[in-house]
Design a protein that fits this description.
By secondary structure, the protein is α+β, with helices and mostly antiparallel strands. The chain has one domain: Jelly Rolls, CATH 2.60.120. 22% of the residues lie in helices and 41% in strands.
Length: 110
């Protein structure tokens, strides 16, 4: 499988935007889940197959992430990914934000 990987750590909540020119699969893993992905084991992630650009998701701070863009039959020049992380004015509230609740569930399984 051809893919691009961009590891990063967030201290604060940010919005991730990924623009692309061809259909791709975009996956955002927390650190331990990326290791499972590399080993071919079942894993959890944010994202999935994307046809329409851009892909946008809000990520909580305090975690190490791996952004993976599976290229499928394309090469990186055909996909031409553009990635942006933008800070949010306030941190999300764990009891109200479903993304954080899902992330907590993923981390509990590591």
């Amino acid at each position: 499988m051809k893919y691009l990987r961009f590891p990063f750590k967030l201290n604060n909540s940010k919005t991730l935007t990924v623009e692309f020119d061809k259909p791709v699969s975009i996956m955002v893993f927390v650190d331990g889940q990326f290791q499972r992905y590399k080993e071919g084991a079942s894993c959890k992630y944010f994202g999935g197959p994307q046809k329409d650009s851009p892909y946008v998701t809000k990520l909580p701070g305090g975690y190490k992430y791996h952004l993976v863009i599976e290229l499928g039959k394309y090469d990186k020049n055909a996909v031409n990914p553009r990635i942006e992380l933008v800070g949010n004015a306030s941190a999300p509230q764990p009891t109200k934000d479903p993304v954080i609740a899902e992330l907590d569930a993923i981390l509990d399984q590591d």
